[in-house]
Amino acid sequence: MNDKEMVAHHAAQKIKEGMIVGLGTGSTANCFIEALAKRHHQEGLQVKTVSSSVVSAIKARELGLPLIAIEQLTGLDVYVDGADEVAPDMTLLKGRGFDLVREKLLAGASREFWVLIDPGKRVSRIGERYPIPVEVIPFAWQMVRESLAAIGGKAELRQTANKDGLVVTAHGSLVLDTVFAETFDSHKLDTVLNGIPGVVEHGIFSHLASAVFCAKDGRVEEQIA
Ligand code: 5RP
Questions:
Q1: Which atom of ligand 1 is nearest to the CA of 117?
Q2: Is the CB of 95 under 6 A from ligand 1?
Q3: For the segment 121-131, what is each residue's pLDDT rounded down to a tens digit?
Q4: Rounded distance, CA 115 to CA 29, Å?
Q5: Which element (helix H / strand E) includes 222?
Q6: Which of 51, 88, 155, 157 is 20 to 30 A distant from 127 in Cα terms?
Q7: Looking at the structure, do residues 15 and 47 belong to the same domain, yes or no?
Q8: Residue 115 belongs to what domain range?
Q9: Cα Rg for the chain, rounded, in angstroms?
Q10: How far does residue 97's CA lie from ligand 1's centre (Å)?
Q11: From residue 109, how far is each of 37, 51, 105, 112 by CA, in Å?
Q12: For atom 13 of ligand 1, which residue has the closest CA?
């Protein structure tokens, strides 16, 4: 088992009969979907799942996990996903993918949010390795870029991998990847970004994670909020 499979297996073992489980998006979340499907088939573990993305929904369906539509839910038991950066206080940076809106919605609506990582995701402060992804309403991108500049952020529209178009998220937003020259307080920045008109969502997940599971040297460390 590699680190991602190990941490995914660890999380899947904690899922209990009857739970509504939110499925994250990304390579680590994929390992979790596989581990959960294995328990569903081998042990008869009955769960319902809700997906944060079309990709995860397809994977869950292919593996035979019962899926319910996000529209039918008012809450869920646990949301399980990876992250791009994890600060010591369990603030996260997410959103290298296209599904930030659903990811944060599910993380916030869940009784628990478990984050699956390897030590390479740990940082001393959010924004250390990656820009902050800010999803914007397409027609508002220039105004939001000005608002971000006013608080010290240099924002660039995210382009496709071969730079022949702009990335459009699952929610239909553009993404302003934003770098701040000064060190910032991620909780304050979270609040400020939430208040900028035209911002749909952003990648700082503050006070949302209830546990971080980190695979290290063949075992899984648990950090609980
Ligand atoms: C997508 C995410 C992913 O969870 C994050 O990018 C981690 O992905 P991976 O598990 O492939 O490293 O936030 O928006």
A1: 10
A2: yes
A3: 999 999 999 99
A4: 9
A5: strand 219-224
A6: 51
A7: yes
A8: 3-123+206-224
A9: 17
A10: 7
A11: 23, 13, 6, 9
A12: 94
